[in-house]
């Protein structure tokens, strides 16, 4: 490694040290609470009814 690459690496490591980090135990609990609170609103978990969904196919595809 030449000097410029080493300086860039050191600067990158210093930037990473400045980032505040939280323990996984705290983050996982917050994520679990968020999922339980907002799970009922998630369209991937509870898709809307077919007639109310504007993106649902209106009819089946036929191949000629």
From TrEMBL:
In the record, biological process GO terms are: G protein-coupled receptor signaling pathway
Q: Has keyword Lipoprotein?
A: yes
- Give positions of region: Disordered: 38-64
Q: Which subcellular locations apply to this protein? A: Cell membrane
Record keywords: Cell membrane, Lipoprotein, Membrane, Transducer
Q: Would the keyword Chaperone be found if you checked this record's keyword annotation?
A: no
- Topologically, how does it sit relative to the membrane? Lipid-anchor
Listed Basic and acidic residues bias regions? 43-64
- Give the highest taxon in the source lineage: Eukaryota
Molecular function in Gene Ontology = G-protein beta-subunit binding
- Annotated ranges, domain G protein gamma: 1-64
What CDD domains has UniProt attached to this entry?
GGL
Query: Sorted alphabetically, which PROSITE patterns does this protein's record hold?
Result: G_PROTEIN_GAMMA
Which InterPro entries does the record cross-reference, listed alphabetically?
G-protein_gamma, G-protein_gamma-like_dom, GGL_sf
GO CC term, one of those recorded: heterotrimeric G-protein complex
Subunit architecture? G proteins are composed of 3 units; alpha, beta and gamma.
Q: Which family does it belong to?
A: Belongs to the G protein gamma family.
Name listed for the protein in its UniProt record = Guanine nucleotide-binding protein subunit gamma
Q: Which organism is it from?
A: Pocillopora damicornis
């Amino acid at each position: 490694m030449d000097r410029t690459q080493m300086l860039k690496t050191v600067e990158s490591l210093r930037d990473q040290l400045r980032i505040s980090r939280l323990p996984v135990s705290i983050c996982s609990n917050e994520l679990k609470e968020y999922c339980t609170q907002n799970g009922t609103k998630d369209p991937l978990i509870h898709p809307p009814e077919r007639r109310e969904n504007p993106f649902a196919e209106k009819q089946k595809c036929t191949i000629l």
